[in-house]
Every structure is written in C-alpha cells, then in structure tokens.
Protein 1
Amino acid sequence: MHDIRAIRENPAAFDAALARRGLPGMASQILALDESRRAKILAAETAQAAQNAASKDVGTAKARGNDEEFERLRALVTEKKAEVARLTDEAAVKDGALRDLLLTIPNLPLTEVPFGRDETGNVEIRRWGEPKAFPFRPREHFDIAGVKPGMDFETAAKLSGSRFVVLRGALARVHRALAQFMLALHTTEHGLTEVMTPVLVRDEAMVGTNQLPKFAEDSYQTTNGWWLIPTSEVTLTNTVRESILDEAALPIRMTAHTQCFRSEAGSAGKDTAGMLRQHQFEKVEMVSITTPETSLAEHERMTRCAEVVLERLGVPYRTVVLCTGDMGFGAQKTHDLEVWLPGQNTYREISSVSVCGDFQARRMNARYRPAGGKPEFVHTLNGSGLAVGRCLIAVLENGQTEDGGVVLPQALAPWLGGKTRITPEGALV
C-alpha cells in the first residue's frame, strides 16, 4: 500500500510513476478523498473539544444555581456528543474508502526499471548454458515416450477437470527429488530457513501480500472463507505481520515447499497442453525480510539463489529484468528466470524474483526498530526457487534422448537412489 504522506508531498511524482506502468494519474482523486477524510476528523475533534468544554461548565452552572444556563449547557453537551458520533462515523467511512482505493493501486516501479508496455519491453541481463543441438526433433515433455506412462492427464480430468495432472512412478519420484534437492540447496548453501506453513489462510494474509482485493478471481476460496494460497509467499511474508522486529534480527530468509493453487481466470486458452500451467502445483518459495538499505542487494542475492538451482541441474536459462508494463502488482523491480525448453524451442519463465519495498509491509503493518530509532517499515522480497513442475518439464525436455528416454541431472542422483535415467518404457534406472 502507498504512503499517503508521500503522495501529499509530491503528487506529480506519484502520477509520473503510475504513468510508467501505463496507468492514468490518481493523485488528485486520492488527495480529494484524503482532504475530505481529514476535514471530517478535524470537525469531530472540534466538536469533541466543544463537548468537553460544555461538560466542564455544566457542573459550574449547577453549583451556582443557574438553572437556565445548566439546561442550555446540558443540551449543548447532548448536541455535541451526537455531532461527534456522526462526524466520527463519517470520517471512518472516508478512511475506509481511502484505504480501499489505495489497496487497488499497484506498487511504483523503481527508476532503474526499463519502460515498456508488455513483455516485449523486458531486457535480458545475462544467460547461462547453451541450448543442446539435438540430432532429432525434440519433443515437448508430454510427447516423450518415457514420460507418457507417468504423466496422466486423462485420469486427472476425471478427478478434477482440466489443468490437473496425475504423476506416477518415475515422474512422481523425480518431481519429489527436485523439491528435495532445492530445499537442501537453499538451506545448506544459501542460508535460508526451511518453514512448513498452512495452505489455508484468512483474508488478512491475502490482503497483506496484495492478492486481495485486486486478484480475488484468480484465487480459490473455501466455503468457510479460507483462501487456498497461490504461493507460500503469502504465508512466509505474513509471518512478520503486525510485528516490530529488532534490526539485529534482519535479514530473515525463509524457504518453503508447498502446494499452490491458482484459478488463473485471466489465462484462459494459454498453455492448455501439458503441465506448464496448472490449477494445482508445487513450488519451493523464497522470502526475505530486510531493512530498506539492504533490499536491493538482497534482490540480487535471491536471484542468484534461483539461478544456481538451474545451473546445478545443467539446464540453460536466461535472466531478464521485467519492464514497467510486465511487472506484477506488488513489485518495484522483478527478475524473471526463463529456462530453455527445446520442445517449444524457446525460453519460458520458471522463476520471478521481486523486491516489493515497503508496499506489502504497510499492508501488514510489519516494522523493525533501528538501533536508537523509531519503528520503520521493513522491505519484503519473494521469488520462486523454483516452480517444481516447470523444473520437471525443463529436466525432461533437456534430457530427452532419441529413443524416448530421459537422462536425468547428476545433481538429483542422491534423491533417486543413484538412478540417473528414465527408460523409453518409463522406468527409473
């Protein structure tokens, strides 16, 4: 959420930042609502002062035996009390309207973020690995012979409908191994603390990480009001909700492997084949809580943590900085990792790593206390480290052989009992 004081101080800068996102200026609308709210608050305070003064004078008039003045003052107290209640209620309505408006406005991009209207404006900053030259036409993951026995979309459709998958045998084990490998890497080498979290959360948690109110249609809600998390960014970030942390406790670096659930109402018709875009999937998430001074350095660090996962697996990727028109709602700056998928002959997103500044912290009221100073809002960051299903796709497509088998990354061998291949028949050997 945005700092109303910053908007008051420089409304032109606020509108200019929104314009970089391709949005119209909103400062005048925000400030008009803010001014109306503040006027109601001032009026309520003035009426309260008048009530307090009249209440004090009531006793004096009574003691003097001035019945006429006593009755006048008593009536004034009643009048002012009703006026205070009315103005306070009106101020609360204005305050709620202002908060509701601010909750729908995306974060402002950092000045260093390249301007662009859509993904065509993203800028590649580095790449790793060379796409393999196959002596045959590589297949997409779901068309590889050795994959077909263990990737069952038909049964999943019977159970749940479209955009679900049942994994069996070798694929289920490789999928599990990928998650275990990622967690081990992040906890033993990257200094992240593993956390197990719920996948059902309250409204407040979804608001805190900006899924609500803007993106309610892209999420699933249970009949009793809980929300299924779209990513453990929601739970990990909200662990510091309504907290004042010691500066010495920062940074906090967390990782979690969870089921994730996304309706993706705005993605109809995209990537309907295979398991690239699913309503239920698994992800190893990274979240950092930092001071404002260290958040940009932490963003680079988190990006590198995600890159190392792909390098250890031996799959080519590129890292891009998203332009203003392609960034997510809550981000100030985002790096996307795009992995090479030979079956599609292109790079596809496998991780987004974003720095959010104090945008989420304001929504959560998450603060820290600098040494000798007053509490300030923390900065929050989140990123995939990685999406497990998409990582499985990358491993399968990049490791496929002409006979329909798959050569698996050596990095997974400790979690596969030393086995390194999927045969054309679908066996793990």
Protein 2
Amino acid sequence: MNMTPLSGSNKIVVVGGGAAGEVMMAAGMAAQAGAQVTLLEQNGRLGKKLLITGKGRCNVTNDCPWQDVLQSVPTNPRFLYSALAGFSPADAKKFFEDYGCALKTERGNRVFPVSDRSQSVLDALERFLRAYHVRILPRKAAEIAVSDGRVTGVKTAEGPVPADCVVLATGGLSYPATGSTGSGYAMAQAIGHTIIEPTGSLVPLVEKGHDCAKMQGLALKNIAVKLVNTKGKTVYEDFGELLFTHFGLSGPVILSASAHMARGEAGYTVRIDLKPALDEKTLDARILRDFSAAQNRDFENSLSALLPRSMIPVVIARSGIDPMQKVNSITKQQRRALLETIKCFSVPIACKAPVEDAIVTSGGVKVSEVNAKTMESKLVQGLYFAGELLDVDAYTGGFNLQIAWATGRLAGLSAAAKEFQKPEDAT
C-alpha cells in the first residue's frame, strides 16, 4: 500500500481488526472525500474474515432493492435506513465492478464474484485503498483517546495516533481466529457507550437431547424446517439443507433459523419435514408400497429405501414400533405413528452454539446512542461506528456484507465531512 497520504482537511484513523470489509470501505471513502486516512489493522493483513465468507466465495450483496434489505434485518432495521438508501445493493455491485471484480447473481439473488474467489473482492477493496493513498499501520488499538467529549486519537502499544475523527470498525466476536476479538466493544464501553450483550446469529443450534449425535455427519437436502417457540408459534420456516452434528443441528436453513430466535428466549423446537414433497396421503401410499415389498422382514429392515441408514434407528425409536416386529403385522395406527415422525421430526433446542461459532454477531453498540444519518456517536464528537460492531444483523444471502459496505461508507464520508471549531477559531 502507498504510505503517503493525500493532503486533506481531516485526519482520520480507521480501526480494524477482524471486520469483514467495513473497515476498508470506511477508510477508502474517507480518503476519496479528501481526508488524510490511517488504517490501523492488528492482523498484519487486511480482509482475513472477508476471505472465508460464503465458503470462500464471498456473497458480496443481495441483488434486490435496498428497501428489501431492511426486510431481512431482524435487529434494528430502521437504524440502517439512511446508510442503505445512500449505498444500495446496486451501488455495491457497481463499486466492485468498477474496481475490477466482475460479479454474477445466483439463486436467491445472491451476488458472488465471477471468479468464485473471495480474493477477487479483497483485491478490489485494496485497489480502492491504493487509489486514494490510505496509510496502513499494523498496530492494535488499545483505547480511544477522548478529551472534553471529543476524539483526539487512538492509543496503541507503540504510542498514540492523533486524529480529528476515528471510525471504529473492529467487527464482532464471530470467527475469532480472523481477529474478531470483541475489542471494539471494550473500547466503546470505556468511553460511555452501552453494549448490548453480543450473541451469535447465523449460528448452529445445540440439541436438548442426544438424537442428533446418533446421526452425526448426516446431511439432508430438500427438507422443510419450521422453528417453533414455546407458544407453538412458527417464527421461521424454510426449505433446503441441514446437517446433524455431535451437538445438534447446522446447515443453511438452521443458520437462518437462529437469526429468528429472540434474544434471551429459550424453549425453541425445530420441526423437520423429512418428505416435504409428499403430502400425508402420498407418503402413506409410499410406506405401504415399501411394506408390501418387505412384508416378511423385521421392521428395522424395511426402511432403507425411505430413510438414510443412520436415521433409521432414531425414527424407529420415535415411532414406538418394535424394530423386530414383522412388517406384515404393523397396524394402521402404527403406520400413522411412523408417518407423523417422518413429517414432523422434532428437535428440542437447548441453546445457540457459542458466538465464536457464529457467522455474525447480534448485539453490540446500542444504536440509539449513534446518529443513524452519519454513524457518529451521540456521546463523543468525532467517533464513528460501522458494521458488525453495531447492534444490527441480518439473515443469510449477502445482507450482512451489504450492511458492512453501507455503514462503512456512511461513517467514512461523514468523518471526512466533519467540521470542528478549532481552538484558535473560538471567540
């Protein structure tokens, strides 16, 4: 990177360290607007978290109107109105293509680089930073320096870095190996900000029981899932793929379901329809055909065409049918119990997996303490926030990265445009 900053009106320090792109967007936009920008990055290299998003392909955004992005944000969507209106998914697509990253749109309007490599997205962002001479310092921020209610810089182990404005974009707690340590929460809290307890969102679910462990490693495609709360209300439903693990459930539909679980609320149940393409009448006919072909066999040996091998013992136990019972003696009532087990395979949920296993973090800096039109702190002049550090999160599909781009851009531009009354100007 070019270490020589452009001359500008404001000296801005952008603090990174695990953020999935908002840090680079904030730094680049501020520099483009004419500010002198220094980016502090504790990892030694930029975009480590960005490289692993979307299974290494990086789901850049979702090709939808910006208003639709708000519909995919369960936590504080109104706060993002100005940021997304100012930098829509269409704007994000144009930005990356302008900086050399060709894009394509796939199922669910998910946008990926044509290369299918996250590196292409990171390369575009680094070209952006080079174009506007952002200065990169491999330092870890320890504290935001504040005097008389105004930012004065950032303290590091190597010494202070003075600044007129600071953009804090350190990410959340997810993927700690990439540098997301939650340090930004501590820095924000130390200067008066309220931190909503960070929890995992888009995270696997821990089973209350041991059935999932018996099917560990089994992936199911084309299944229907419902997430039901303690009142029996379905709060989420979807169709797709899930995975049984040693502790519970994972996979795309489960990660999405986790984002719909209210903070602090327990007692959820995942209900899986193992045969969603078959209504009960059709499924019953299918079971009868299988039974007819295996009428002299034990029940446990009659389901191999209907269910995966590792699932058969669990389904049999739940049906209440003796596994050694001859198929030709199974009653209509017993067959009904089997059908109901297949159409509604329930997994009671104890809790979400730890936040360290999550794709994104829910919780963070309380948004009522941040100006939604500028991303500036309402408590400390010249301090701005962006991305996952804020108490906003979205569902899967490119929405979380779109939030990162939009809030990073708004924070960077707002910091560059910030006007202060200099001491020598005071009357």
